[in-house]
């Protein structure tokens, strides 16, 4: 599919503030007259719904089946949402993408680099990947105390420490690391500085 738009992926462990930052960036770009599609993974499609069922019972599938579900969900996301939006010239902001698979399913024992290579066979490479970084303890605190949620099976603290280490080791020219410990406005300003060159 011909690609005219821009794809920006937001990544990081749980509780980094990705969702808030996507809302702020989407609003700022719309004010500049850009057509923005904000989307997320897991999606609300057939595979995304199956993934959400695993939040309480991750052990009900094998690590291979789990990886396959995230890949199926992404294939559908690319075919139905990301690809068509890019072809129309829109700016796509995705809350998680294949770097999450590398980090989370990597933390579960798969090879992160192989996961990235398998995804890049069908998923457009983002123009920019913004990895928001906070200490694991702060991410966990935000999920538990501020959202009032209990940690799901993907979010146990030890697992997240492994996930964070994989995110920290990823490199590529499109990757930017942003400190997510400050207030939302300050983090947004840093993101704006980073994406400015894309437009
Ligand atoms: P999250 O962004 O918390 O989704 P929501 O709050 O909308 O349900 O993501 C759900 C979990 O899925 C999160 O803990 C990370 C995990 N995940 C993976 O393990 N692999 C992946 O490829 C993706 C996209 C997410």
Brief description of this entry?
The protein has helices at 18-31, 46-53, 63-87, 98-107, 112-119, 136-146, 157-169, 184-195, and strands at residues 6-11, 36-40, 91-95, 128-133, 175-179.
Write the layout of secondary structure elements.
Blueprint: E1 6-11, H1 18-31, E2 36-40, H2 46-53, H3 63-87, E3 91-95, H4 98-107, H5 112-119, E4 128-133, H6 136-146, H7 157-169, E5 175-179, H8 184-195
Parallel strand pairs: 1-3, 1-4, 2-3, 4-5
Helix pairs in contact: 1-8, 2-3, 4-5, 4-7
The structure holds thymidine-5'-diphosphate.
CATH topology assignment: Rossmann fold
Low-confidence stretches: none
Basic shape: globular
| Secondary-structure element pattern, one letter each | EHEHHEHHEHHEH
- Return the CATH architecture: 3-Layer(aba) Sandwich
Distance between the termini: 21 Å
Describe this structure in words.
This protein has 199 residues and is of the alpha/beta class. The chain has one domain (6-198): Rossmann fold, CATH 3.40.50. Helices cover 51% and strands 14% of the residues. The protein is built from eight helices and five strands. It has a five-stranded parallel sheet, sandwiched between helices. The longest helix has 25 residues, at 63-87. The protein is globular, with a radius of gyration of 16 Å. Bound molecules: thymidine-5'-diphosphate.
């Amino acid at each position: 599919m011909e690609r005219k738009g821009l794809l920006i992926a937001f990544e990081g462990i749980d509780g980094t503030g990705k969702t808030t930052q996507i809302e702020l960036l989407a609003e700022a770009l719309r004010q500049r007259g850009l057509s923005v599609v904000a989307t997320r993974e897991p999606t609300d499609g057939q595979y995304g719904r199956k993934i959400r069922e695993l939040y309480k019972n991750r052990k009900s599938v094998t690590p291979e089946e789990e990886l396959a579900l995230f890949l199926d969900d992404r294939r559908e996301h690319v075919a139905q949402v990301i690809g068509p939006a890019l072809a129309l010239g829109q700016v796509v902001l995705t809350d998680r993408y294949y770097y999450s698979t590398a980090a989370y399913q990597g933390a579960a024992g798969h090879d992160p680099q192989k996961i990235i290579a398998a995804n890049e066979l069908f998923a457009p490479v983002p123009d920019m990947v913004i990895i928001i970084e906070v200490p694991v303890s702060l991410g966990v605190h935000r999920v538990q105390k501020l959202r009032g949620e209990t940690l799901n099976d993907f979010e146990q603290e030890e697992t997240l420490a492994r996930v964070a280490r994989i995110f920290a080791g990823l490199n590529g020219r499109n990757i930017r690391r942003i400190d997510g410990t400050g207030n939302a406005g300050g983090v947004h300003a840093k993101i704006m500085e980073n994406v400015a060159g894309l437009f």
